[in-house]
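Protocol step 4 of 6: structure prediction from sequence.
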Amino acid sequence: MNIYFSCSVTGGRADQQVYKAIVDHLLINGHEVPTAHLSDDDIMALEAMAKPQDVYQRGHRLGQWLRRIDRRSQHTVPRRRL
């Protein structure tokens, strides 16, 4: 199954190990996760090095991914009010 995994990149990194466990479980069980890189512990460093052209191309690929997926999984972190 092709699964689009989405999670917080900047606001929810405290849950990164949970994201990683979910993605690893999906991959181990034979699923395709085109956005698995979002669960990597070094995603912030990778994003900091991304060139605008890379971000544009990734956005273009996102549309292609979304047309091919079987399931979507989105994980958000509620914001706390101060």
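Step 5 (inspection) to follow. Residues 3-75 form one domain.
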